[in-house]
UniProtKB/TrEMBL annotation:
Single GO term (MF): 2 iron, 2 sulfur cluster binding
Native species: Halonotius aquaticus
Keywords, comma-separated and alphabetical: 2Fe-2S, Electron transport, Iron, Iron-sulfur, Metal-binding, Transport
Presence of keyword Iron-sulfur: yes
Pfam family, one: Fer2
Biological process, per Gene Ontology: electron transport chain
Descriptive protein name: (2Fe-2S)-binding protein
Bias kind Acidic residues: ranges: 74-93
Amino acid sequence: MVDLVAFGIAAALTGMFVVLHFANGTEWEANPDISQEILEKRAAAVPETSFPEPMNRSIGGGGGAVAIEGGAETGEDGELEEAEPEEQSPAEMPEDEIEYHEIELAKQGETIEVASNETILDKAEDEGFDLPYACRQGQCVSCAGHIEDGPAEDHVIHYEQETFTDEEMEEGYTLTCVAYPIADFTLETGEAP
Ligand code: FES
């Protein structure tokens, strides 16, 4: 009987102790989440690469699309883009494409035959005419002439002329040092706008 009373008292005291203990709190705290910190340290330790990180190594769980570097050489569809071909000089046209045109030099009263792969100035000089020129590169107006039946671009191809405006060429002005004929025409040499 005494044992039962002692057991009951002990049990009551134990229960009270437990209730009081949890009422005050255990003062236990969960460890702070350091997973993000670890991920960042790992990312800093991995050298930079030019290809996308695999999903399982990307910070924050990943899943987002990663742009591929070097896009300048690839198009939107991923295919290589070709560079614009440079304009080819008529002087380099294949021999079987060369045509010959009659150019009447109005002031000289003579007609010369000029191939489509040579300039009017070069051919006129070959034929013994002393025409004006300076740079021979389409950058001044020394060699300028006027095509009576203009526009100039209907009669010649200018290769790298940098002097005349579209309007001036529309009026028939040409630079004989860089003009390759594509038709017969009459030319007044020594004429500038
Ligand atoms: S010589 Fe200069 S543009 Fe022809």
